[in-house]
Design brief:
Blueprint (H helix, E strand, L loop, with lengths): L2 H15 L4 H13 L6 E6 L5 E6 L4 H58 L3 H9 L2 H9 L3 H10 L2 H10 L2 H15 L1 H4 L10
Antiparallel strand pairs: 1-2
Helix pairs in contact: 5-7, 6-8
Protein name: Flagellar motility protein MotE (MotC chaperone)
Organism: Aureimonas pseudogalii
Keywords: Cell projection, Cilium, Flagellum, Signal
């Protein structure tokens, strides 16, 4: 047997095994080569009772084929765009969280400083200065360190503190007032933030 003849026999045997006659195989290969569909496609359907049936599926148009071919890339593009937007939003949220955390730490530090300032004077000293006449207390407080004098005045009643400050020389009263403001006013923490803004 020649090689050509054995190839022809093998091809015929293969066609018989597939259940198609040589003429049908030639027709379908010619249709495929021509780009013509082989007829309506059939869809195998298995019912709930297990019986099989087939239904014809209408051939798809070129527009439907085009749409189905670009559907996945378009979906991928939309997903990529949404992912980029989410990452951008995540970055903005993360930056805002960092900013708020810095503000929280700043306020915590201010509260600790204020508490330390207010606690730096003893109750006994407050009682002593609150019982003194304003002019005598003013001369005594003017001789103290400014932070200590400010802490004592901050713990006195406002009427007593204002009377004592009124008896002090103006430059000393201004220094003590500045220390009180720095230690007790949150706006001074922000570097004298504009009115209406708070931390």
């Amino acid at each position: 047997m020649t090689t050509k003849r054995s190839l022809i026999l093998a091809g015929a045997a293969l066609a018989l095994m597939l259940g198609a006659s040589p003429s049908q195989a030639e027709e379908s290969s010619a249709e495929i080569a021509a780009g013509v569909p082989a007829g309506p496609a059939k869809l195998r359907v298995v019912g709930p009772d297990g019986k099989q049936s087939s239904a014809e599926v209408a051939p798809r148009s070129d527009v439907q084929n085009y749409c189905s071919n670009i559907a996945d890339p378009a979906l991928d593009q939309r997903n990529a765009l949404q992912l980029a937007k989410l990452k951008d939003a995540e970055g903005q949220v993360s930056a805002k969280i960092d900013e708020l955390e810095a503000k929280r730490q700043e306020v915590q530090s201010w509260l600790a400083d204020r508490k330390a300032f207010m606690d730096s004077t003893s109750d006994i000293m407050i009682a002593i200065y609150s019982g003194m006449k304003p002019d005598a207390a003013a001369s005594q407080l003017a001789g103290l360190d400014r932070p200590v004098a400010a802490a004592l005045l901050a713990r006195l009643k406002s009427r007593q503190a204002s009377a004592i400050l009124a008896e002090m020389p103006a430059p000393i009263a201004a220094e003590i007032s500045r220390v009180i403001i720095e230690k007790t006013d949150r706006a001074s923490l922000a570097g004298a933030a504009p009115k209406g803004q708070s931390l």
